[in-house]
Amino acid sequence: xxxxxxxxxxxxxxxxxxxxxxxxxxxxxxxxxxxxxxxxxxxxxxxxxxxxxxxxxxxxxxxxxxxxxxxxxxxxxxxxxxxxxxxxxxxxxxxxxxxxxxxxxxxxxxxxxxxxxxxxxxxxxxxxxxxxxxxxxxxxxxxxxxxxxxxxxxxxxxxxxxxxxxxxxxxxxxxxxxxxxxxxxxxxxxxxxxxxxxxxxxxxxxxxxxxxxxxxxxxxxxxxxxxxxxxxxxxxxxxxxxxxxxxxxxxxxxxxxxxxxxxxxxxxxxxxxxxxxxxxxxxxxxxxxxxxxxxxxxxxxxxxxxxxxxxxxxxxxxxxxxxxxxxxxxxxxxxxxxxxxxxxxxxxxxxxxxxxxxxxxxxxxxxxxxxxxxxxxxxxxxxxxxxxxxxxxxxxxxxxxxxxxxxxxxxxxxxxxxxxxxxxxxxxxxxxxxxxxxxxxxxxxxxxxxxxxxxxxxxxxxx
Length: 463
Prior knowledge:
This protein is α+β, with helices and mostly antiparallel strands. 40% of the residues lie in helices and 21% in strands.
């Protein structure tokens, strides 16, 4: 009998790692079980988990998203594509927010946009204009647009136009400025404004001509290739940006002067994050395809304004469910620390919403050099996200997982049942306006967003 009993007892540990760590330190064999109590109202969660209409709606929304075919078709001034911008309006990242509640980097980006548009001649005039209600502030997502970090879109900024050739939707985003001191991180120095004007006068028109000559760029194919090359299309875009530049180069040379073509290609070659904004707008098109399916529990928007984190759910229309934006854990540039950081900000979590970003980190282990952690962490993040999604995107396959598709279709029911919020990798903005990016890392949304959405969906099922 004694030969059949292990000399070291085995323990199954549920819950906090603290207990498992202590038991292992005492020499016990510990099997860890990733279990958490369900979050929010058990009654509401039970209703949405057992209603067959939700499963059917989720399948419909998922099929629409998987069938989406985002194409980059043009670059035009924002005011031509988003008419509300002709009313002295600025679009911003995240759920709705007024000037009085805006964080430092978003205020800095607003100031910069006012200077860029000529609405103010100095910082004080810009602040006064905002304080006195001279600017209308609206979320990018309300106009099928997305913007990284502060996400400010002003009338004169050129925007990429992404068209879903399957559903017919169009989405929009600004052109990426690069890293460091840039408008999206709240910087508004003269060099920032000079760069924005060059983007408006040279880069935007040149890209538009080249894209039109090509007849568009198939972003689904391009991003799928980038994932095979080590990108995750959120914080690592080196391959996607390179593929984009290679595809556009001949048309750029054919449709621009030699000096302009050289300047544009030089800018693209020096900006590994150029494709970030395009990835975001493509992800927005994919997520938009699955929107407004009655009773669906799939998340179609995740966005943050530096104060609030908000989600929108397919079966609940345009309603926002919000909680406080969280602090980001990651790596900081020399001279900065968490004390300098602003809470989570930007629309770029739309990439995770459609199975990219942190959901695809298993295929982009090198990103940990930018956001912190280890390659094993990157693999774990992706593996965990299969538990809160309803499907996989075979188009976005990961070699490290035997070409398994990325986790796709965040289900608010699974998030609450497992009390496991999605993981997001992101840049870190300085909390004060005018400084810019100070690092990058990983963050999770607040659970109350998902808990409130589950309750709202449960009520919708009773109507």
